[in-house]
Amino acid sequence: MPKKSKLYTRQGDQGQTSLFGGERVSKDHLRVEAYGQLDHVSATIGLLVVSLSAGEMAGELRQVQNDLFDLGAELATPPDSRLQYRLPRAIDEDDWRRLERLLDEYDAQVPPLRTFVLPGGHETAARAHLARTTCRAAERAVVRLAHHEEVRPDVLTYLNRLSDFLFVCARLLNHRAGVDEVTWQPRPRAEDAG
């Protein structure tokens, strides 16, 4: 049996980490923040998947987790890295179009949206909303990175579609569970209050 390697290397104890290709950067580098946020999205999707009934959109969400890992690898690799060739196939239009098809399919199964929806309802729907909000945070981190370094447009498009997809997943999960969505109840306008 091969010797098991240790999980810790002590290489990051001073707040530095290595990008794919060996370049050392600070752990708060925009690139590290961006791919770290993708990991956060994947973790929240994992939490959602374990709460789903068998066959209930889990396969689609596991594919999204794989997509996010591929995106993370891309973002962990500077565009000028000599190791670009070792990356998995890049997320592209086919991938975000797949999300659009699923989004349309799921949206056709829920009632029309008439007001703003708040996170909540059934527990699985609330988890989908949590994943959606972490996806929006990841998207913002990638946009910040794109202001300073090259990021392919398909990366941003994918994340934008993913947050919409997770929103409709939450709506569908509430619908399938027979649980009403939590809707925004605006305060009365100041002119109506007095």
Provide the CATH topology: Hypothetical Protein Ta1238, Chain: A
- What percentage of the residues does DSSP assign to strands (E)? 5-15%
**Tally of strands:** 4
Largest sheet: 2 strands, antiparallel
Provide the residue-averaged pLDDT: 88
- What value does the Rg take, in angstroms? 20 Å
Classified by CATH, the class is Mainly Alpha
Q: Give me the side-by-side strand order of the main sheet.
A: 1-2
**Name given to the CATH architecture:** Up-down Bundle
Elements, N to C (H/E): EEHHHEHHEH
Q: Give the CA-CA distance, first to last residue.
A: 77 Å
Q: Roughly what percent helix?
A: 55-70%
Q: What do these coordinates show?
A:
The protein has 194 residues and is mostly helical. The protein has a single domain, classed as Up-down Bundle (Hypothetical Protein Ta1238, Chain: A), CATH 1.20.1200. The protein has helices at 30-50, 58-75, 93-107, 123-146, 153-177, 190-193; strands at residues 16-18, 24-26, 117-118, 182-183. The strands form 2 sheets. A two-stranded antiparallel ribbon has the order 1-2. Strands 3-4 form a two-stranded antiparallel sheet. A hairpin with a 5-residue loop joins β1 (16-18) and β2 (24-26). α1 packs antiparallel against α2 and α3 (93-107) runs parallel beside α5. The radius of gyration is 20 Å and the shape is globular. The model has no long low-confidence stretch (mean pLDDT 88).
